[in-house]
């Protein structure tokens, strides 16, 4: 894998030494691909930290569960890190443990959020894999060929958290559980949609429509989540995507304000009505 002459176009070097550029409609921008790997690797590393810490803390009180968490921590980001080495890049992931503050969350919140994170990760990666398998002309990076096996890590991790929640029925069987379930679904879905709509180059580069891809992932994740969560969102209602798109438009205006030459006070005043519209 290399980039061609500073243009940022990914070039695949096959096992027989043939250089195959991703030109025309098969163009996958090198910078966009690298950014996708970097974001994915950083997100996976947060899972590594969580599982490693849980494995350490549970070692004496519940050694079986501790071992499972230790094995799960091993899975996180192992393929993505190797992928970055193709670009002669390496993330200083250890920096995150020193520079970022740790926040305490109650176990049930970790269960909800992490279950969703693993399942939505599975649907993202398996959808990309299936799309590229059906459309090999967009296959411009070898790591995507291995997404089918790798994304099963995400799926199994989610299943493990499903088992943990079933073993703690108080996390699923009251009115507060319904509210928290819907809250975390909304938070995870909105975050993914807004982030991806800011970075469409990668998805468009492999032949995906970003919004259609995200809605497919959200719908499938929501259907899977409905098997365990006491309540989920009605994401298949067209009104749901309409509101997501409205948030994307507001978020773009907020970004424009942040990048403007106005002073801080003026920027904050301009943000107020947009933030009010964002949460309404």
Q: What's the SSE blueprint?
A:
Blueprint: E1 2-3, E2 10-13, E3 19-21, H1 30-57, H2 63-75, H3 78-85, H4 94-99, H5 107-134, H6 147-167, H7 175-198, H8 201-205, H9 210-225, H10 238-258, H11 264-279
Antiparallel strand pairs: 1-2, 2-3
Written description of the protein model:
The chain is mainly alpha-helical and 280 residues long. The chain has one domain: Ferritin. The protein contains eleven helices and three strands. Strands 1-2-3 form a three-stranded antiparallel β-sheet. The relative contact order is 0.10.
| Biggest sheet descriptor | 3 strands, antiparallel
Beta content: under 5%
The SSE order reads EEEHHHHHHHHHHH
CATH architecture, by name, is Up-down Bundle
CATH first level:
Mainly Alpha
Mass-distribution shape: globular
Oligomeric assembly: single chain
CATH topological fold name: Ferritin
Structural class: mainly alpha
Q: What radius of gyration results from the CA coordinates?
A: 20 Å
Find the count of extended strands (DSSP E, 2+ residues): 3
Return the average pLDDT rounded to an integer: 81
Pathway: Porphyrin-containing compound metabolism; chlorophyll biosynthesis
EC number: 1.14.13.81
InterPro entries: AcsF, Ferritin-like_SF, Rr_diiron-bd_dom
GO molecular function: magnesium-protoporphyrin IX monomethyl ester (oxidative) cyclase activity; metal ion binding
